Every structure is written in C-alpha cells, then in structure tokens.
Amino acid sequence: MSSSPSSFYYNELRRALSEQSFGLTRYEVTRQDTPHEATAFVTLLEGTALRVSLNTRGYQIDGGQIYESIDELLQSVSPMFMQKRKDVLLAKLQSLQ
Q: Residue 8 and residue 35: Cα distance in Å, rounded?
C-alpha cells in the first residue's frame, strides 16, 4: 500500500529524522497542516531547538537555506551531530572486525 500524496512529506520527514535520531536529542513531527509541507521540532545535541520543514524544494530551517537532505541540514548546524555520526560509523566498522 503506498502513501497518499498528501502524506508523503509527513512520512518522509518522519523517516528521515528517525534515521538520524542517533544525532538528535529529540524530534517531533507535527500534525500535517498542508499536503505539500511537513514540519518538525528538532532539538540538537547542543540543546538548540529548531523548526525544520520539508516541502517540494527540500529541507529548511524556519524558511532559511534549503538543503537536499536532512543529513546535509544537520551537518551544517550541529558539530555534535557530525561527531556522533563519525562515532556511530566507527563503532559499526569496529564491530565487523
């Protein structure tokens, strides 16, 4: 069963944040207000709270710069996210040995 077009952005934002949750303190995707945009409140490891949205143009913080991926957005605003990402990757590589 596929998602309806009206829930695509909501589902995609939830999935993207879930995949990056190791590098976030918390996130909450809000109830969908429009079929063409989804919004989430994200708290970075640094403690900074952001409002992130996803629409046809991409991911953005409070109407600012647009990013192609949530990963790119988080890397640009959170040095601790980048460090945690490296730590998780290193741990996974070490577990393969």
A: 8
Q: What is the DSSP string of 23-85?
A: GEEEEEEPPP-BTTEEEEEEEETTS-EEEEEEETTEEEETT--EESSHHHHHHHH-HHHHHHH
- State the pTM of this model: 0.84
Nearest CA to 52 out of 82, 24, 80 is that of 24
Q: Which amino acid is at 97?
A: Q
Beta bridge partners of 50: 42
For residue range 39-85, list pLDDT tens digits in order.
999 999 999 999 999 999 999 999 899 999 999 999 999 999 999 99
With 0-12 / 13-18 / 19 or more C-beta atoms within 10 angstroms meaning exposed / middle / buried, residue 64 is exposed
Alpha-carbon distance of 72 to 68, in angstroms, equals 7
